[in-house]
Amino acid sequence: MTEKTQTSRNGIGMPLVGFGTYQLSSGQAELSVIEALKVGFRHIDSAEGYNNEEGTGKGIKAAGVAREEIFVTTKLFPGFKQWGAPEKTFDQTIETCKNQLKQLQLDYIDLYLIHAPLAELRLEQWRALVELKKLGLTRHIGVSNYNEERIKEMIDAGFAKPEANQVEFHPICAQVGLTHYMKENSIAPIAYSSLAPLSTWRAEEGQGGEVLSDIKKECQLVTKEIAARLKVSEAKLLLRWGLQHGYSVLTKSCKPERIRENFNVFDFVIPSNDMDCLNQLNQNKPIAWAANGLNPMEAAPMLKYV
Ligand SMILES: NC(=O)c1ccc[n+]([C@@H]2O[C@H](COP(=O)([O-])OP(=O)(O)OC[C@H]3O[C@@H](n4cnc5c(N)ncnc54)[C@H](OP(=O)(O)O)[C@@H]3O)[C@@H](O)[C@H]2O)c1
């Protein structure tokens, strides 16, 4: 891990530290993306469901970094009947990606993901992602919030396996079995909500940061002690923990000083005994979607084969 640097990339060319845009307004996304690209981030993570891709696209354009240097991930919102959102068909998936490209002002995406296995039509949607890659509208395709069972479903149906899987990953939710499975199958692991154990995570009202606060407090006793001893912030410690597990990590902030701090995670190493202490905090508890009363990995409806 020590030999990795801020410019290192994983097997699909994705920089190891990416900038996330969830819970930013379109205006905030524009300014934050400019700041992130200015401090050196070269991976931007977006989604149809974040309702801010116009701002993200403006930020990418305004930053003036060459397109081929930036790795852009975005996601299809698959639809979810339980929320009254109709499921997207093959054609609607293709159309959605083309619309997102317009919003982002891009000719191609680097990685296009199905945001979660929330649709009965998820195999039809995956077939559309395979087509989008053939059309050159995305360089790589993958999924998010898919557990081993959902990935096997795709392989059993005769499809190419996803190139990446973006999942919640931090010491309280360490995805041990899934991480092993992705490694065995060369599926690039991407961590989201690495900072969920912090008291400052989604701290504003309505952002859902209070979920599982008792469990988080126990975790903070450990992260505070290790971070103080290693002379780094708890945020950096949590991001570094994800990297040392072989994940690419994503981090979001609307504050310039935090954007800079979160990018700078290659100047220390967590010793193996401290990694062991952090690993022991695992409770397999996802937090990121819990304010919506949902575990996206386990919400999959019956599959509809098409
Ligand atoms: N695929 C999915 O289902 C999924 C789900 C969730 C997230 N994601 C992606 O992953 C990205 C990261 O996840 P996340 O949004 O949960 O973000 P995160 O980076 O884990 O946490 C962001 C929260 O932590 C605070 N924060 C950021 N840097 C900090 C620092 N250095 N010290 C203290 N507090 C800090 C932020 O506040 P301020 O903004 O006020 O600084 C914000 O409240 C998302 O933006 C999105 O792109 C994907």
What does this molecule look like?
The chain has 306 residues and is an alpha/beta fold. The chain is built from ten helices and eight strands. The protein has helices spanning 26-39, 53-63, 90-104, 122-134, 148-156, 176-184, 213-230, 234-244, 256-263, 272-279; strands at residues 17-20, 43-45, 71-76, 109-114, 138-144, 164-168, 188-192, 248-251. An eight-stranded parallel barrel has the order 1-2-3-4-5-6-7-8, surrounded by six helices. Helix 1 (26-39) runs parallel beside helix 2, helix 1 crosses helix 9 (256-263) and helix 2 (53-63) packs across helix 3 (90-104). The radius of gyration is 18 Å and the shape is globular. The N and C termini lie far apart (43 Å). The mean pLDDT is 96.
List the topology elements.
Layout (H helix, E strand, L loop, with lengths): L16 E4 L5 H14 L3 E3 L7 H11 L7 E6 L13 H15 L4 E6 L7 H13 L3 E7 L3 H9 L7 E5 L7 H9 L3 E5 L20 H18 L3 H11 L3 E4 L4 H8 L8 H8 L27
Parallel strand pairs: 1-2, 1-8, 2-3, 3-4, 4-5, 5-6, 6-7, 7-8
Helix pairs in contact: 1-2, 1-9, 2-3, 3-4, 7-8
Task: Record keyword descriptors for this entry.
single chain; 306 residues; alpha/beta; eight-stranded parallel barrel; 8 strands; 13% strand; globular; binds NADP nicotinamide-adenine-dinucleotide phosphate
Rounded mean pLDDT is 96
| Assembly annotation | single chain
**Major β-sheet, in short?**
8 strands, parallel, barrel
Can you list the ligands bound to this structure? NADP nicotinamide-adenine-dinucleotide phosphate
What is the tally of beta strands? 8
Structural class assignment: alpha/beta
Strand-and-helix sequence, N→C? EHEHEHEHEHEHEHHEHH
Helix content: 25-40%
- Beginning-to-end CA distance, first to last residue: 43 Å
Low-confidence stretches: none
By DSSP (H or I, 4+ residues per run), the number of helices equals 10
